[in-house]
Write a structure and sequence with these properties.
Bound molecules: S-adenosyl-L-homocysteine
Helix content: 40-55%
Structural class: alpha/beta
Radius of gyration: 19 Å
Oligomer: single chain
Number of helices: 15
Length: about 375
């Protein structure tokens, strides 16, 4: 468990059930203060580049799933990725995040070279989010200079996880094992879950939040589950909307996501926590700001070339489809200033990571 956690499991459960806004304001205010005390007023911006929409997996929630034959697929070239990274530098971002479906077409050697070029040509921190890869791949990329890896465990309820995330082959290491591997390799490690997956109960979500502390994560990303019509879970969600809601089911709402962000901040005070695009998709006007006001300290503006964005449809109506990078960047910086916060400078590693590395690697 994260030693700095300031909240118990029972309190987490109670807050997740709370609906009174006035009381919730005290939770959000407390999370905001903990955020300020532990990670400061800087909002770190990470340029997100969706490098491939090919995927071998069939996750029941995700629009990139292999069986979604309607989606046309793309894979960016090394030169296209480097051009996106140069835009990140131009906007003053400190990090580029390379994300994709689980794509074996992304070869170890090829990506190793892309990472080397990124490190040679820019000062950016490099974050990878490429799904479940072999240890040898992860080690090679770390060796080439990759700094961070994001791999959400999606839900800690093993039964629900196995249903929505069919394994590649039974017996392969699961995402918890991979998170440990990433940590051993020296990555700054991020994980997270979706809020409101059909079948997820309040107790499940409280378990997830407790797990973030137990895994001692450096970064934690949370977003609402958004139903995609061309996925089994999206269809199930649409059908269930005709029936009375199960009172144990977690709502995939804005409010529930804010509560979860605030609680994660209390469990992991010095982790980096993004206010996610999925949240902004529920509330394009000010979802990102609200996330920043209840515990989050990172935003990931999308730098994928606009022509490809529609082909990276994890869920429908992604907020970033409407966002032209230049204009979005300007507005975002104004909005951050209006909150009384500052744009982070430099790579913006989580204080949690810097501290644990100091303890692990004797100088
Ligand atoms: N292939 C990579 C990256 C996936 S996209 C991987 O599996 O790690 C990143 C995240 O988007 C996923 O981890 C998941 O939590 C989220 N996501 C996928 N489908 C979603 C949906 N329908 N609604 C909300 N979030 C979704």
């Amino acid at each position: 468990m994260n030693r700095k956690s300031t909240i118990t499991k029972e309190q987490i459960r109670r807050w997740l059930r709370e609906t009174d806004w006035r009381r919730l304001d005290t939770l959000f205010g407390r999370a905001d203060r903990v955020r300020r005390d532990h990670v400061g007023d800087e909002v770190h911006l990470r340029g997100l580049v969706e490098i491939s929409s090919h995927c071998q997996r069939d996750c029941l929630y995700c629009g990139l799933r292999r069986q979604n034959r309607i989606l046309s697929r793309y894979r960016l070239s090394a030169e296209q990725i480097l051009a996106c990274a140069r835009r990140a530098v131009h906007y003053g971002y400190g990090t580029v995040v390379l994300q994709s479906g689980e794509d074996s077409g992304i070869r170890r050697e090829w990506l190793t070279e892309v990472i080397r070029q990124l490190k040679r040509q820019t000062h950016l921190a490099v974050t990878l989010s490429l799904g479940e890869r072999d240890r040898a791949d992860l080690a090679a990329w770390r060796h080439a200079g990759a700094d961070r890896y994001l791999l959400r465990f999606e839900t800690a309820n093993a039964h629900l996880y196995n249903r929505i995330h069919p394994p590649r082959r039974p017996g392969l290491p699961d995402r918890f094992d991979l998170l440990r591997t990433l940590r051993q390799l020296g990555y700054e490690v991020g994980s997270g879950v979706m809020v409101g997956i059909p079948g997820q109960t309040i107790d499940d979500l409280a378990d997830d939040i407790e797990w973030f502390g137990r895994l001692d994560l450096d970064m934690i990303g949370l977003g609402p589950f958004l139903a995609h019509p061309h996925t089994p879970l999206g269809q199930e969600y649409a059908e269930a909307s005709d029936r009375p809601a199960d009172p144990r089911q977690v709502a995939n709402s804005e409010l529930m996501t804010y509560k979860a962000i605030a609680l994660v901040r209390l469990v992991c005070p010095d982790a980096n926590i993004p206010s996610t695009t999925a949240l902004a998709s529920l509330n394009p006007q000010n979802g990102r700001e609200e996330g920043l006001r209840c515990g989050a300290n990172v935003i990931m503006p999308n730098l994928t070339p606009p022509a490809y964005r529609r082909q990276y449809e994890i869920y429908p109506a992604k907020a970033c489809l409407q966002e032209e990078p230049g204009r979005f960047d300007q507005q975002l910086k104004q909005r951050i200033a209006a909150l009384g916060r500052r744009v982070g400078v430099g790579p913006g590693a989580a204080p949690h990571y810097l501290e644990r590395r100091k303890a692990e690697v004797p100088s």
